[in-house]
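Feature request, filed as a ticket because there's no other form

It would be nice if the structure record came with a short human-readable summary line next to the tokens. Right now we just get the raw output. Example of a typical job, pasted below so the devs can see what we mean:
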Amino acid sequence: MTVTVRFLGTAAFEIITSEGKRLLIDPYLNENAKSPYKVDDLEYLDLLLVTHSAYDHLGDAVSIMRRFP
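Raw output as currently delivered:
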């Protein structure tokens, strides 16, 4: 299995496996001036991981869960 890792700014990363599974880690995107990506840019999501509850890690988790229930 191979994976593609994309840095989304601050502590946010997207990992996509060769099987097409998509994992998002610490999604601080919409209010993050350093992130070129926003929640609306996400195509789909299989798993969301938040490492801890600091705002710059938890950021958009709720809006992402609403978009990808």
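Something like this underneath would help us a lot:
The chain has one domain: 3-67.
The helical segments are 55-58, 61-67.
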